[in-house]
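Repro:
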Amino acid sequence: MIFSKKSLLSFVAIIALSNTLIANDKINKNNTSLGSIDIISNDDGMTENSNSYTINSMSSATKMNLSILDTPQSVSVITQQQMKDFNLNTINDVLNNTTGIEVEQLESDRTRYTSRGFNITNFLIDGVGASNNGYIYGDMDMFLYDHVEVTRGATGLTSNHGDPSATINMVRKRPTKDFQASTKISGGSWNKRRIEGDVSGSLNDSKTIRARVLAAYEKADSYLDRRDTKSTIFSAIIDGDINDNNTLTFGLTRVEDKNNGSQHGGFDSRELQEKKYDISVNPSSDWSYRNTKTTNAFLELESILSDKWKLKSTYSYNNNEQDNDVSTLDPGIIWANIYADDEYKTNSLDLTLNGEYSLFDKEHEVVFNTNYTKHKYTGKGLTEVTKYPIDLSTWDGSTPARNYDFSALENTDYIQKELSFSAATNFHILDNLSLLIGSKIANYDEKGTAWNGAYTKKDTSILTPYLSFVYKITNNISTYMSYTTTYNPQNNIDKNGDQLDAEEGINYEVGLKFSFFDGTLNSSFALFETKKENVAENMGKLPNGKDYFRAIDGVTSKGFEIEVSGDINDTINTSIGYTNLSIKDADKNDVTRHIPRRMLNASITYSPKEITGLKLGASANWKSRTYDSRYEDVSQKSYVVYNLMSSYKVNKNTNISLNVNNLTDERYFSSLMKGGYTMYGAPRSYGVSLEYKF
């Protein structure tokens, strides 16, 4: 039934789009007024030096550069200013302060994210990327990025799968025409030390060739015993104007993380709840480590074809190498040593054509996109299980010598290929009423041997239609509705070791948006509902130690979100978001209870005019009670984490800042997702920094 609805709506969308473009050749092509519709074409989208908590426009939701008021979905942005104010140095920090996003810290080096009850698998860089299994290893550093755009709900026009959780788009810092340079040194709790350097500017007098180089080094201990980390970051981007209409950009990034004392699985959640170990206790051996090396390169050509048409072609390459030898503890007596050497390679080619056409005396937007992505995963690993009684309250991390049988290595070698094409138009029916209609068709193919066994999966002609209306009540108030279908392949296995079928569903959303003070403050209210089939729920472990899942049909996630973000005036910045949702199966039973049903994120800063250069601020993150996905008697009570910030601009070049996180030293579980395993969230910490701009 879902497929037939998708086929019909996709067919209508493509026919309607084709007819409008054909009709375009038969009408007067003179430019006409867009009335009150806000189409953004000249904004570079950067938040650097804006001092703002909002943005003029974004294309993460539809690949059309629309104002927030005209975007028919729930969107949030964490700007460069907000990241600097509250010392949001990692993707976990950023998403912890984003409306509707739950950060599931599974263990010291591995994290997953959820939105509206479902795992987030769509991560983009500059609007280009592909889905992954949702895991982030280590702490993804935000130093390389200008801001982060988050689109909640299904995004079938910008992601291959249209999963109804959210899409995370990280927007890189780019070269600037004018010279700028800065350096920053910082330190803090657990012997943290960090230095950053950022240089940007033109390489010739005509400013047609520009470059930017960023580098950072960080070393720190941890609140966990025997744990320390070291990170090295380097990025170089150069862009040049081939002529007046074509700009070529090349970028290369290298990030290395070395982590000692790494966990795999964390604590047994029931044991942690009952014994309440000291927060410094680490269920990891003294030899455990997880090292990662990530290389990213991209080549981008932006071509202005005419005053109405622009083509962006992007090739990107990403190589993530992981080398780890970690340990996991299973209720006190079973010790598993896990060795792995993995490599993840992704090659992606993305072509996006944006344009405008005239019809019925109005200008309308259109976008075409095609994307080909190939993931190749290779690796080898093994597990050694040892009976070894441990008292975590006194244990120093020592264990018997490892005795790996490398002849028993489990090899991973599989390939995923995705090819998609999408077309959409934003048709202005009236000056204050627009219809956005489009569809994506995708092919998905994977085969090989993975962590959960050998499998082959191939799906062709996957259709994800998209339909929305936006009505401008006034120039500052709009209402919208959107509809799309979802498809998300998964590698989870059931108790028999068989791979689960892809998740499929339907997503609805209606909302109301407000814009104040010439767009410097935006607010929104959204109602959403997603119905989904084949949703995976963790049911525990098989005798071989692998996680297994059951597929739940008829899962419905519904609720509402409220957000206010931006600048109230030139002295107050704020970002406030509240989420309320329910997640039930076909029998009206609560499912995925490890996800909080209510969340509140709030931050505010104030710059008193009486003391030039001073800024003070606070933030709070509150979450309702959650329950372990494996043990019914294990739960996390509702809790709130408070943070403080202050900064002082000594002069136009020098800024000092102080941040305090988890002010009240709240003790809480970082996640109850991983089927009976968890760890404590970070206790109170502080950080100081000194930044100098040349």
